[in-house]
Design goal:
Number of helices of chain A: 14
CATH class of the largest domain in chain A: Alpha Beta
Shape of chain A: globular
CATH superfamily of the largest domain in chain A: Metal-dependent hydrolases
Distance between the termini of chain A: 15 Å
Oligomer: homodimer
Largest interface: A-B, 65 and 65 residues
Radius of gyration of chain A: 22 Å
Number of domains of chain A: 2
Structural class of chain A: alpha/beta
CATH architecture of the largest domain in chain A: Alpha-Beta Barrel
């Protein structure tokens, strides 16, 4: 599974499921997806009766490997558009905090400790293993302010073969404690630029890992720091990630810190940070004018419902954001979010949309299909990879997971071990219903294998070809 | 593990955690709990240095077995105060329905099919295995209208050693389809009485299984059926379970069906069904007068947040119910709810309370401690077992789960199998923080053994004494 092992041309045979559009899933029960040694999807066949017929049609694939899914389906790899690898060890710890108190109680001390490369190695390795095990094939990571730890995170992603945007965090104001902040704008830019250079040096084409400029969020950056990061983004053509409008005290804080700005979004726009390569996490409380501005600049939004609920931040109005034409993906936002799973995040997005619906109109509800779209094609658009990943289209690269479900034998399972995971299939279910069962009760046990660019990057004991 | 195997006197050694009050957990890092061969807790020691000291103090326990938990803790078994065993096979299937359309699309056809004892055996066996695997030691089950299938569910619970209230469903109006309803009030009462008699015949003391009178909910029962069930409850002194005020169209339906009643709660009160032995599921939209009436009658409430969210029913105001002095427990309400796990239900209760808080005041928020109380002592009060289970008090019976968490070794886990489950412990965590991590990211993999009344009723490969 090492990143350098050659990939044999492979035909993935059996049921595949992916998004055709925001509201529509394609379920193909007898599919065949041909992936070449570069990891590119060269053909997609439907209504396949026998693999021999596929090989007869595509004669140059006669020696290709075949990977069959017998009692499940292939699904595109998930895309996590916002998470903090550096907060992984705090997962599940909130106490009674909300955003600003949570930062000082739990987050800053933990992040500061990752100056230690030994500690960073443990936490980052474990977190990349965790996200891969949940089927996440692309991840936009916050690191810490430490250049070398952040670079180590990029090394780990490249070695493990997980697509990643890896960002060294910038923050220079006294919202951050003295023991954990950039000491000047100059040093912030220097360290960030050096991290960008390093990440580009280990993967010059950005095929797997790419750098991302990461001002933590407006309150922790001075106006001059933000402006310098905007200039760096323009100079390097790198992606940008930050937070916006997560909770109300934060928004008031931004208004008081940037009195000349007309809105939170305007703070970023003034600094040149609102671009088509920008990922804005949260966007819970944007005003209509801000939504228009974000849409006009082509910036993208990472919806992080688990985190927004856990920290009582609010319910992001995803339907309104989508209606404004903004690209929206899902983010686990560990450890504000309590799970590294995008499947859990799909559920949370659905629940949050129901709370929005209870307070406004039924139109706010996200369907299962829509949540899965946000988790794949939506996320791909947010990280600028919509032409490469998110679905099984000819010409795309094969980022995928094999999903297997548990089947209940006559008489019921009495052992009580349930190694096959939490989903029970009784035999009456259509493929569509199997997908629903997976979305509402599945977990990492159901993701038995994961591929990035055609390379097997994770598998469990239940993976069989 | 058969229900008839004798239980040796056993000392449970190591960390235990349980609720002291609604808002307070007791965490005892060096505990010893002595459980006799009847499953009763005879002593609880704290600050234990060596098991020999415990045996010296309690010299008659010198030959007792010792079960140690090394890297986790003992926690009281969970109590599920409302779930439908008969809907287990539909878990995760909602489509785009809400309550009333969901009943006719998914629920009635599935329940009707359980007239087949073969099918009932498979589904009920699997569901009891599932609930046990999630640490549920007591469960209030809805069966179906079929007496023999319902009796089979009671047999399975008794055989597996899970405490259960098992109810044959009554419904005689044309809200239910012709193929699945009681044909008359007389036959409804006759079948229900026969099921009560059967369940009492297999467990005369009700030590493990007890019958429960189960009018589905007001719209599916005629006034005379409800009144006859009220009389049956008085005659048999059996428990009662039903649904109340789950969603708004349902409430309007009840108002139109029972024009003489002043409220939904009044419908049940008029029929003699609002008693201290009554479990009311949902109670999302009760009026203040109904809350007063429920409190005055001493009836209990099963809070089912996962179901209420999944079906967009609403957010039950749990804080108000608690403040009114009503006993509240948690219910998974499968398959309106999407998980048989009370741990998941704790999280859902916390999330729903945050949505209530966003719309009203911070006082609505449930803490982790409060959710765990509802899952154990709160639930015990709802099913009338508060003097027997829910905590580790001398004189109570030992219903418990052994919780083990995963530990991350230096360098991070690179295998990506994560057999120990979803919780990562890095070594810095206090026991309180381990409990928090378990609540927010744990699952059935962390429940490695389960006891009811001192009897081991479930274990996984990670259980070691």
């Amino acid at each position: 599974m090492a990143a350098s092992t050659p990939i044999p041309p492979t035909i993935y045979l059996g049921t595949f499921v992916h998004s055709k559009s925001l509201s529509e899933l394609e379920i193909c029960d007898q599919g065949a997806i041909g992936v070449d040694s570069a990891g590119v999807i060269k053909f997609v066949e439907r209504d396949v009766v026998r693999v021999e017929d596929v090989k007869a049609k595509h004669w140059e694939w006669k020696d290709a490997e075949v990977v069959r899914v017998e009692d499940g389906f292939f699904f595109p790899g998930f895309i996590d558009t916002h998470t903090h690898a550096s907060q992984h060890a705090n997962t599940g710890l909130f106490g009674k905090t909300t955003l600003l108190s949570w930062l000082s109680t739990y987050t800053f001390p933990m992040e500061a400790s990752l100056e230690s490369l030994t500690k960073a190695l443990t936490i980052y390795t474990n977190f990349v293993s965790r996200t891969l095990s949940h089927g996440t094939t692309t991840c936009a990571y916050y690191g810490t302010i430490h250049r070398f730890s952040t670079n180590l995170l990029a090394d780990i992603c490249l070695e493990r073969g997980q697509r990643a945007l890896v960002g060294r965090v910038c923050m220079d104001t006294d919202l951050s404690p003295e023991y954990y902040r950039d000491t000047s704008v100059e040093s912030a830019i220097e360290e960030s630029a050096a991290s960008i250079d390093y990440i580009r040096s280990i993967d010059p084409e950005g095929a797997i890992v790419r750098p991302i400029i990461t001002p933590r969020f407006a309150p922790s950056c001075s106006a001059s720091c933000l402006a310098a990061l905007g200039a760096l983004a323009q100079e390097t053509a790198a992606h940008i990630q930050t937070h916006i409008s997560e909770n109300k005290p934060e928004i008031e804080l931004v208004a008081s810190l940037f009195p000349a700005s007309t809105s939170y979004a305007d703070v970023y726009d003034t600094a040149g940070l609102l671009t088509p390569r920008t990922i804005l996490a949260h966007a819970v409380h944007l005003t209509p004018a801000e939504v228009q501005l974000v849409a006009a600049r082509g910036a993208k939004i990472s919806h992080c419902p688990a985190s927004n609920t856990a920290l009582t931040s609010g319910c992001a109005p995803v339907r309104d954001l989508l209606n404004a034409g903004i690209a929206v993906g899902l983010g686990t936002d560990v450890s504000g979010g309590f799970s590294p799973s995008i499947l859990e995040e799909c559920r949370q997005a659905i629940w949050v949309s129901r709370f929005v619906a209870m307070a406004s109109s039924d139109a706010a509800k996200l369907s299962t299909e829509e949540a899965l779209y946000l988790a794949t094609r939506g996320g791909a658009a947010v990280v600028g990879l919509e032409s490469k990943v998110g679905g099984f289209d000819v010409g795309m690269e094969f980022d995928a997971q094999m999903v297997r479900l548990g089947s209940v034998s006559e008489g019921g399972d009495q052992k009580g071990e349930f190694e096959a995971g939490p989903v029970d299939v009784f035999g009456f279910e259509t493929t569509d219903e199997k997908v629903q069962k997976w979305v509402y009760s599945g977990d990492d046990r159901n993701t038995v294998a994961v591929w990035v660019r055609g390379r097997l990057v994770h598998r469990t004991g239940r993976y069989v070809k």
